[in-house]
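Researcher: Please generate the 3D structure of the following complex. Treat every line as part of one assembly.
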Amino acid sequence: MIQFNALFSKEIKEAIRDKRALMAAFTMAFLAPVMIFVMSKMAIKEAVETPPAYVNISGGEYAPALMKHLADDNVFPMSEVEDADKVMWEKRNIEVFIPADFEESLLAGTSINVVLRADYGEKAHQSIIRRVRDSVYSYSRQIGYQRIMMRGIDVKLLRPINLAEQDTQKPSSNATFISLMLSIYLLFGAFFSGLSVAIDTSAGERERNVLEILLCQPVSTMKVVLAKLFAATTIALIGVVLTLILSTIAVGFVDLSQLGLTFNLDMKTAISLLILLIPICFFASALQLFFAFNAKTFKEAQSLVSIIIMLPGMIPFALSMMNDRPQWLDWAPISGQYLIMEDLFKGDPVGFGVLLVTGAFTVLMTVILVKVMAERLKSEKVVLALS
Amino acid sequence: MIEVNNLHKKFKDVTALEGLSFSAKDGEITGILGPNGAGKTTCLRTLYGLLKADQGSATIDGINVSEQPLIARGNLGIFPDKFGLYERLTAYEQIDYFASIHGLTGAKKKQAIEEVLQELEMEDLAHRKTVGFSQGQRMKVTLAQALVHKPKNFVLDEPTRGLDVMSTRILRNYLSKYKAKGHCILFSSHVMQEVAALCDRVIVVANGKLAAQGTPQELCDLAGEAQLEDAFVKIIGSDEGVAA
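Model: Done. Output below.
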């Protein structure tokens, strides 16, 4: 224990004294709340406000009433666009064609073909297209209802079925997009924060010629690996806790009620999150140490480990693509934690058992990695790579 | 007391050690001389328990290194070939770190550190971070960390490389003092004058084998040369004749 304490406190001292690396390690913690704040603001703006949209309307003069209806919905012809935005709207080039026989067809009661033409693939176009479409449909429906009423028919006949939609989302459910972002940031935080310590303490020490003398000391390689693992994990955990605290504070500044949403992180959820993320911090650091020790040079270690930190981004992405996912993904590191976090944020009850099983599986993999590392540090291959 | 018996070590097709045997006694400074690639570093790494010999054994105070590496290393102080420092720690913290690894605690540890700092006259360096230390200062820190637990045996791998005259003298004086206290010192070097001046016994290693051993004077006599350097060249130059 004396040895472990000495090894561990030395690693922590070194980690904390490298101030620049430490600041870099915690960027995720400081960046995540900013990102969440900005993106929430943008999402609210997009959902709540309907800023004026400018559309290339040809044949507007044939349908003044429709034009007025569109204008009521904040959709205007291109002629009214302000000079500052002109280039942008012209580039978007969303076109509506109104046929010359609009008035006639309306009087004759025949179907009128209005054309909406745009690049539907562009994300920026989608909300405008939706608004134009809704506006035209509602105008069309309005006329239809009037015609039927004029003939003395109850409009209700047109709606034989009324679909009442009921959302079973828990009242405590959090805004999905925020919890989604936060889960990914937390996982990233676990992988990113301990990264510099993990590389520095393994590949870095070898490059600085201090690993060999350590391996010559009367201390087991297991203790050496564990001390390094605990040091990197401590920093990773600090990063995760910071991310969690700062993000919760940041979300407080976003007025989610405009969307009819809430986001709160009660003590129980926060503790469950920590129980969930502690094993993943250990796992992340162990994985990074493993690859950094195996790398021949510091540079190689950096490249390998940067691939690892993509995992918490890629795995949730892959999960979201899968509709029927195999059972083992519920326990596998990263994916298991991500799925549980999803439930936690949705307010679904998460059993202690599930937390335990997923955690145990991650811990098991960490233990295997540690054992392999401790054995490898005894091997001649590693010793020969020192010189 | 360090003993090496019939060490054999092969790396794939390269034979590094081929039946090397020697012993370094307590109260003596034993020098290992050998051309580059003779197997000195391999031999020392086997002694530290980092490499396992294919055949033969190395013992430190009678403890077999490959069987009980941790106990054997406890009786060993090492001044490695390429030494680095933990540059974010102060000299004191670094020595403290190694003292703790050797199981020292509390007042005993503090006293041991104070003693070694005093002996090496490095009290004024103690609380500075080691980044930017001169080669001589680095040597002192490495020496202090190797000796803080007062090992019975002390192994140095080319310790004077890159040192100026003053630092070399400090090192030599320190080694002489250490020897006088009855410790066993084994050190490898390329500097003939140093070996001649310091060593009680010299072991010449060539091609992974013992080429000759004896006092510097005995080696000169054996080779029929006045200078140790000439004797050394002659001894390693031919496998037959003198060396046989």
